[in-house]
User: Fold this.
Amino acid sequence: MPQPPAPTPSPVLADPVRDWADSGIVALTGHADEPPLVPPGRAATRARELGERIAALTQGRVRLDGGRLLSERAAFTVHRRNGPISAGGACRLLPAADGWAAVSCARPDDPLLLGALVQAELPADPWQGVAAWLREHTGDDLAERAELLGAAAAPVRHLAVAPPRPPQLPPRPVDGLLVVDFSALWAGPLCALLLGMAGARVVKVETPTRPDGARRGHPGFYRLLHAGHRSVVLDPTTSAGRRALAELVEAADIVIEASRPRALARFGLDAHAAVAAGTTWISITAAGRSSDRIGFGDDVAASAGLVAYDNRGTPVFCGDAIADPLTGLTAAALALTAPANGSGMLWDLAMTDVVAATLDRAPAGPAPSARRQADGWVVDAADGPVPVAAPQRRQPAGQAPGSGVDTAAVLADLGIPPP
Assistant:
């Protein structure tokens, strides 16, 4: 399976500490009542390089600081660092019998899933029961049961993965191309946003019973990711809905999705058939298309080893769901390339591997700490102290469409009969 392209090297000598400080991630890492911490690895450097790569592939049409994209959701939500509780509050780092684990409780049904995981009826706040179960079970126990049940939970493993050596593909102009985006939350929609900024026509597809969960989040951030896109809602439980979905995929130049293959197969969608017909297919999953693991940005990043340790040996989250924007940037860089012969491509993006490739090894001790200077914080980079930047927000370029408002118009434009 093709692997993500290595980012274009920056003309400036990379300094991971400086890049972390500039990105806004340091401000989101550590305990609320203690100095910020510098995360391990070079994810902010990788994100900056990917931003430069995207600028080159689009001939400057899309020019963004990739490092700053890692923290911009927190600029909208005003989330802050909170130690072993994620900035958004839905994920926690908990001790297991043989180490640490990341467990998410973000979806309405997750308390029930976590109850099934620990084999006990849990209250609406499940954390005490989950923590008690984990203290008696290993990370392997957790991983096996979480994958079986579809819970977003995994042990912290420190998975260092060698940077991939991808095929060298030429740039692909996307101006006017049709992007069909089945994804939700942050990673896939960020990829779609960047393609839309490069000139692609983006159609967001949801189902009546599974709207994008990000619609329940901060409206300004949702608008940032979806402004200027069109919204289609189709029901895959009906034959007419499945037919319309299939024809929409057939018309697409690029498909973005973040579902397990068996879920898409139930809708009658076949990635390999679409690729054979010339489509670029971006598949974003927690651990690859061959895995049934479920994961979100915080638990995926932590499970890959992107955690910082305080001076007591307790792991804390790095940033805010950092696996999501890092994967979205990677996906956009992939979608902006294509084989010269016009054939399709299937990019199997495992978020865990995207994060792990930015890490060299497990942290050897406590993370470097920021210190006070004037009214802010500074950290020591290779060339001296640098200020710790706060997360910064971009302004949305318009309004995001309401769910399904463009269904009839989009289908009519593409000559697809309405369901």
